[in-house]
């Protein structure tokens, strides 16, 4: 009987050691990843941003590239595509009107990164800026047919990233202006 108790105690000690070792490895890995997590984009660096959002013109899918041109400033091209469908009642005829809109936008984005100015920890990137885009909007209604409308979008924005390792970040941004909304996605730095 004592042999079984001794064996169980040894197995329990080995299990506790394995658990402690695994916990140590996880904490060490997390600590090292935080140590080497990158802050905001630096001069000469590039980063690719992509994700989805919500806006006054539907649900955008976006793709953009930032180029660090100064220690606190980035510029780069952006593209987005969004669709929007709405139903309404014609006040004169009482009939249902379906309004569908698709928009493709291409433009430029400029951001000021506040980390150095406000002494923000390097695993975060807090920024504000403006994007200027040209949108080709295709609108279709059951009343008037199809209309192509060009549109200039000017959107001030604020956002932030959490850099969870040297290459990848989670991004959140809120836009105001022509197309108010918010978006979230990932950033890959290279």
Folded structure, characterized:
With 190 residues, the protein is of the alpha+beta class. It has two domains: 1-35; 40-189, Beta Barrel (Porin), CATH 2.40.160. 20% of the residues lie in helices and 58% in strands. It has two helices and eight strands, in the order αββββαββββ. It has helices at residues 2-35, 115-118, and strands at 46-55, 59-70, 73-89, 96-113, 124-141, 145-163, 168-175, 181-189. The chain has an eight-stranded antiparallel barrel. The radius of gyration is 25 Å and the shape is elongated.
Layout of helices and strands:
Blueprint: H1 2-35, E1 46-55, E2 59-70, E3 73-89, E4 96-113, H2 115-118, E5 124-141, E6 145-163, E7 168-175, E8 181-189
Antiparallel strand pairs: 1-2, 1-8, 2-3, 3-4, 4-5, 5-6, 6-7, 7-8
What attributes characterize this protein structure?
2 helices, Porin, 190 residues, alpha+beta, eight-stranded antiparallel beta barrel, 8 strands
What overall form do the CA principal axes indicate? Answer: elongated
The sequence of SSEs as H and E is HEEEEHEEEE
Integer average pLDDT: 81
Share of residues in helices? 10-25%
Supply the number of structural domains.
Answer: 2
Q: CATH class of the largest domain, anyone? A: Mainly Beta
Q: Give the termini distance in whole angstroms.
A: 62 Å
Quick one: how many beta strands?
8
Q: Tell me the number of helical segments per DSSP (H or I, 4 or more residues long).
A: 2
Name the assembly state. Answer: single chain
Unreliably modeled segments: 24-37
Strand order of the largest sheet: 1-2-3-4-5-6-7-8
Instruction: Report the biggest beta sheet as strand number plus sense, adding barrel if it closes.
Output: 8 strands, antiparallel, barrel
Gyration radius from CA atoms, angstroms:
25 Å
Strand content: over 45%
| CATH-assigned fold name of the largest domain | Porin
CATH architecture of the largest domain: Beta Barrel
